[in-house]
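Reply to dn_fold:

You asked what the input looked like. This is it:
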Amino acid sequence: MMTSVWTSLRLTVAMVVAVVVAVGRRLSRGPLVPGWGWALELRRATLRAFLEAAREIGRPEGWADFRVEAPLPKVLRELVTVEPDTINGVGGEWLRLAPLAGPRPILLYIHGGAFVIGSPGMERPFIAHLVAAVRADAFSVDYRLSPRHRFPAALVDVTSAYMGLLERGIEPSRIIVTGDSAGGNLAAALLVRLRDEGLPLPAAAILFSAWLDLAVTGSTIQTNAGTDYFPVIDTDPARHYLGDIDPTTPWASPLYADLTGLPPMLVIAGGREIIFDDSTRFVDRAWEAGVDATLYVEEDMFHAWASVVPNHPVSQRTFTIVADWIATHRSCDG
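and this is what came back:
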């Protein structure tokens, strides 16, 4: 108990100090990024402080136990329902819209967290906003986390959940595989695995700030270090996930995969995030392979902004972009 209280206190102090420093810096020098308001800048500062402190005091084996059950946003509580479920042996939860006429898309949602942390409950507000914007239902997968469960355990779980949807009679043409950060990696890896094994492919995929290169070779890891909330990323999370596996293994790092034959993809990235290069290089490779890939960049945003600040006007614009893209890339007629 004392350890838990001490950890919470250290994290709180780190975030308070970060706020004080950020306020002082902004008052003396102006916004960190032109156009950033106070709320966005302070959210970035507190998240960075929290992550830096957590990395210093936490044990990777215990990060999976940090689970948040965030409530639905008030404005969506009468529109979206949450229902726990287990699909093909994999736990998770449905976020469903109030009944609508006709079939609707199904999002297979894969949360982020560098493969070591995260849960459907942690990203519930973001997924609820996404579901409402695109008029879809979503199953959010509670996949196994590393280092307790190393590669390919998470990919196995995501694949099982996808195949379970098919076994329930949901046509692949209705499924859009979606994920952010590490979840974006798993979404892309799922497509590659399904293609490699000759299994039915979903209609499309949407990748938010996807971490696609576990070899960590992108130049923006350094150049965007001052504007993202992540500490400068190193290979530790990748090692926790991969163990001794080569980080350029295609099912582990989809950036190195042959992307031929994959379905349409919307790749969303922030111009100020440290893994921005992962998205741009991945889309280049997709184009070279003849894949219908669309890159949408919010030039002044950090990593996974729509998940971090879903009510922000820029996030709302992102949801609209996603909804418009889905409307032009799939049909629910099936």
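The chain has two domains: 2-58, 74-329.
Hope that clears it up.
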